[in-house]
């Protein structure tokens, strides 16, 4: 078993009434290594100026977590097969909509990995697809959610 920690902190500004629902949703995520990330509700959910476009929102973090987990397994599996990966870029997207239980939910995430290999040993598309399949099966985050995850 492994445990992970994050500290989420929000504080009301002195100028905010709060009970009128007109307060900043900007807050901080602090991680065990000391990294602090400015976070906020999505401006698509809570309008500006109560959200921050410059901050990471939970929906973006969810998509990034899925993409990052998948990538880390992909890189490990590629290295084990002696394929040299020079770069990996994923412009992942997510769709939030009403799900089958009539709840707003991140129903679909699509990963769009672009991978650059170098060296004499180059994987075929079939081998790349197999590595993606195995990475998806092993991804801890993908195994933890009900969202449909597509890899293009």
Q: Span between N and C termini?
A: 32 Å
Order of helices and strands: EEEHEEEEHE
Mean pLDDT: 96
* Number of helical segments with 4 or more residues: 2
Q: Rough shape?
A: elongated
Q: Report Rg.
A: 19 Å
CATH topology descriptor of the largest domain: GMP Synthetase, Chain A, domain 3
Please give the number of β-strands. Answer: 8
Q: Which percent bin holds the helix content?
A: 10-25%
Biggest sheet features: 3 strands, antiparallel
CATH superfamily of the largest domain: K homology (KH) domain
**How many structural domains?**
2
Instruction: Note poorly predicted spans.
Output: none
CATH domain class of the largest domain: Alpha Beta
Q: For the largest sheet, list the strands in their spatial order.
A: 1-2-3
The amount of beta strand, in percent, is 25-35%
| Broad structural category | alpha+beta
CATH architecture of the largest domain: 2-Layer Sandwich
How are the SSEs ordered, and which strands pair?
Elements: E1 6-9, E2 27-31, E3 36-39, H1 58-80, E4 84-90, E5 93-98, E6 104-111, E7 113-118, H2 125-138, E8 148-151
Parallel strand pairs: 6-8
Antiparallel strand pairs: 1-2, 2-3, 4-7, 5-6
Helix pairs in contact: 1-2
């Amino acid at each position: 078993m492994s445990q992970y920690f994050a500290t989420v902190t929000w504080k009301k500004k002195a100028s905010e009434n709060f009970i009128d629902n007109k307060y900043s949703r900007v807050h901080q995520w602090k991680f065990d290594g000391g990294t602090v990330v400015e976070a906020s509700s999505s401006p698509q959910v809570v309008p500006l100026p109560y959200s921050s476009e410059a901050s990471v929102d939970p929906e973006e973090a969810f998509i990034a977590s899925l993409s990052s987990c998948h990538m880390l397994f992909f890189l490990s599996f590629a290295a084990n097969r002696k394929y040299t990966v020079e770069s990996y870029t994923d412009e992942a997207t997510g769709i939030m909509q009403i799900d089958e239980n009539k709840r707003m939910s991140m129903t679909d995430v699509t990963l769009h990995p672009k991978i650059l290999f170098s060296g004499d040993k180059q994987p075929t598309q079939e081998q790349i697809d197999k590595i993606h399949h195995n990475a998806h099966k092993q991804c801890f985050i993908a195994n933890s959610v009900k969202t449909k995850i597509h890899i293009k």
